From TrEMBL:
Protein name as catalogued: Z-ring associated protein G
Broad class of the protein's primary localization: membrane
Classification via InterPro entries: ZapG-like (IPR009386)
One Gene Ontology biological process: regulation of cell shape
Organism: Halospina denitrificans
Subcellular location: Cell inner membrane
Family named by the database record: Belongs to the ZapG family.
Taxonomic lineage: Bacteria, Pseudomonadati, Pseudomonadota, Gammaproteobacteria, Halospina
Amino acid sequence: MESMLVVGIAALAIGLALGWGIARTTGNRNVRQRRLAQQLDALQTEHTRYQAQVNEHFMETAELIRRLNDSYRDVHQHLAKGASKLCTENDARQELEQARQDNQLAYQNQEDDDGVEPPRDYAPRNDNVDNGTLSEDYGLSEKAEREERSGT
């Protein structure tokens, strides 16, 4: 009977130890799960706040653009009214023609003074070269001559 009592106490001790170990490892998981749940809630709250800020920003931007368009329309109407009241049609035509001529002269003077041409997306055809830049063998003869001179 004593051996049964010793076996029972040993089984109880082993069961308590195993129970305590399982509870401890499970408890750590629960703590980790609670921490992760709190972090997730914090991130969701921050994300919701960020979305609200973005929404507010774009709403304010849309309102500012609407006001800018209204101001532009008001300025345009003011200028149109002023032009119709203050200028005759002949005066307006003369001013436009004078401005066009001034721009044309300025452009011609700029070309004459600088002697600079706008950049091209191709090389002009040279009289010494039979093929233009877009030809498949453009520049190959020069490359072959250089290779012959260098001996490769």
